[in-house]
């Protein structure tokens, strides 16, 4: 109990709080509806600086990409359309040779001597809707698995919906004696089958 004349001891001074660190200009708190919220917007100067850096980096990146592109060769992974398939002697007489069907979609046909002994190349695409026919050795014909078109070993259509023969590819004898085939140059009509570039005399 305090008596008159007692002196109330002074309360200890509150420890001084360290001053809060100043926030960066672009990150500061604002009072919204009585609550403090963080404002993360950039200042105008920071925005312009960032935009300048972005433009600079995009320009440098574009220039580097152009330089790199210059050193990367243009390579096409499509199969070539003109290619060699060996010498005529590599193909047996009277046989429809299927060794290039998978890679180049062609058959190489070498006639028997009784038929002239010539060699021609048939493109393996059905003239109905474009399926790849099969060679049926036992039936001596090409047969399309899609709608049943049939073609003789010459490529002539004779059954099913195909409206015309299988096409023949341009062929030539290269300087090294190999057969050169151009699958982009094809002949649709039997009238063309005696042309020297569709039929090799071997
Ligand atoms: Fe060959 Fe129809 S695509 S018969």
Task: Provide a descriptive summary of the structure in words.
The chain is of the alpha+beta class and 202 residues long. It is built from 2 helices and 13 strands, in the order ββαββαβββββββββ. A hairpin with a 4-residue loop joins β9 and β10 (157-159). The protein binds FE2/S2 (inorganic) cluster (FES). FE2/S2 (inorganic) cluster (FES) binds next to loops. Residues 126, 128-131, 144, 146-149, 160-162 line the site of FE2/S2 (inorganic) cluster.
List its traits.
16% helix; Rieske Iron-sulfur Protein; 2 domains; alpha+beta; four-stranded antiparallel beta sheet; 202 residues; binds FE2/S2 (inorganic) cluster; 2 helices
What is the fold's blueprint, element by element?
Layout: E1 28-32, E2 35-39, H1 44-71, E3 82-84, E4 95-97, H2 101-104, E5 106-110, E6 118-123, E7 134-136, E8 141-143, E9 150-152, E10 157-159, E11 168-173, E12 179-187, E13 200-201
Antiparallel strand pairs: 1-2, 3-12, 4-5, 5-6, 6-13, 7-8, 8-9, 9-10, 11-12
Bound molecules: FE2/S2 (inorganic) cluster.
* Assembly state: single chain
> Average pLDDT across residues?
85
DSSP strand content? 25-35%
CATH arch. level architecture of the largest domain: 3-layer Sandwich
- Report the sheet with the most strands, covering strand number, pairing sense and barrel closure: 4 strands, antiparallel
Task: Please tell me what the overall shape is.
Answer: elongated
> Could you name the ranges where pLDDT drops below 50 across 5 or more consecutive residues?
none
């Amino acid at each position: 109990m305090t008596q008159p004349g007692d002196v109330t001891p002074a309360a200890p001074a509150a420890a001084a709080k360290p001053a809060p660190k100043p926030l960066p200009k672009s990150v500061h708190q604002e009072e919204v509806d009585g609550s403090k919220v963080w404002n993360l917007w950039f200042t105008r100067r920071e925005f312009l600086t960032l935009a300048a850096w972005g433009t600079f980096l995009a320009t440098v990146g574009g220039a580097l990409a152009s330089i790199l592109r210059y050193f990367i060769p243009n390579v096409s992974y499509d199969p070539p359309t003109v290619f060699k398939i060996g010498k005529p002697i590599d193909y047996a007489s009277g046989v429809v040779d299927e060794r290039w069907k998978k890679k180049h979609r062609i058959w190489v046909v070498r006639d028997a001597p009784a038929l002239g002994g010539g060699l021609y190349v048939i493109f393996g695409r059905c003239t109905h809707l474009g399926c790849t026919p099969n060679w049926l050795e036992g039936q001596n014909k090409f047969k399309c698995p899609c709608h049943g078109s049939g073609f003789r070993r010459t490529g002539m259509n004779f059954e099913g919906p195909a409206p015309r023969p299988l096409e023949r590819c341009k062929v030539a004898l290269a300087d090294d004696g190999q057969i050169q085939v151009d699958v982009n140059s094809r002949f649709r009509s039997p009238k063309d089958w005696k042309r020297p570039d569709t039929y090799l005399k071997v």
